[in-house]
Amino acid sequence: MTIKVKAPGSCGELVQGTINGVNFLITCPVDWYSEVTVVSGDSMVHTEPKTATAVSKTFEYLNISGNLGLTVESDLPVGKGMASSSADISAACQAAALAVAGRHLSCDEIADIALTIEPTDGIFYPGIIMFDHVEGKIRRSLGNPPPIYIAVFDVGGQVDTLVFNHRKDLAALNQAKEPQIANAAALVAKGLETGDARLIGQGATMSAVANQSILYKPCLEQVITISRDFGAVGICAAHSGTVLGVMFSATAMNGHESCIKEIGRVCSAVVYLKTVQLIAGGLIITGDDGSER
């Protein structure tokens, strides 16, 4: 049996921080995917350690054993805050469970497995979710996004998720910005509830700015100013990564290309990657016949 599972990446997070000391993020899934293919009965091929660990932990969770071949196809940049590892891990968990046990894992089951490996983005949940990416204490659905397009930029370098989340100063820095993050989360939640892209953009921008005290992004203020001039609704950021996203509602896309050019002209520290769409999260599963399962 062959199973293919696609998981979306992200453009950072719409919001990230803490509420009363509990970590959370609001997911920002985009149509840029990782795809895991497994073939039951084959021998495990050499794969990235986290993905292999995801398979072994899924087997342990289901109390099963078996052989499967596994390949990962992804052009999601690594170490940029685009949920590349979370996409690989969540897709591998579901693909392994289906191929060997015929078992559809729930999103909560995937989260529980993934969180034993590393801090995890909730991009495999349907829609947009508020999710505790460290311990899984918060798992709250916020609804589906209105049409929003995101021009993705990279400020350079890489960030290791495990190292970042073990920073000794992280809890205190997050505590200091809790009021701004609470306001940002409320704006994004209201925007999702009402389908208002501008509210979502305002909340995301507020969170990106507040995160400068934790992981500084060069040119952020310039990008915000330029994007407003070209009709963007806001800026999202990888709070533990290196990407920035300029967010456009569907009706403001006429200024999109000019905005990208102006940011490139003014801010040599950032590099344009591609334009994606904010989507409802969730895994896409196909079987031998190519039909979704």
UniProtKB/TrEMBL annotation:
Domain of life: Bacteria
UniProt-listed InterPro entries: GHMP_kinase_N_dom, PduX, Ribosomal_Su5_D2-typ_SF, Ribsml_uS5_D2-typ_fold_subgr
Segments forming domain GHMP kinase N-terminal: 55-118
GO molecular function per UniProt: kinase activity
Enzyme class, broadest EC rank: transferase
Keyword set includes Mitochondrion: no
Keyword terms: ATP-binding, Kinase, Nucleotide-binding, Transferase
Source organism of the structure: Sporomusa silvacetica DSM 10669
UniProt entry tagged with the keyword NAD: no
E.C. number(s) listed in UniProt: 2.7.1.177
Pfam families, per the entry: GHMP_kinases_N
Name of this protein: L-threonine kinase
Chain coiled-coil ranges: none
Membrane spanning residue stretches: none
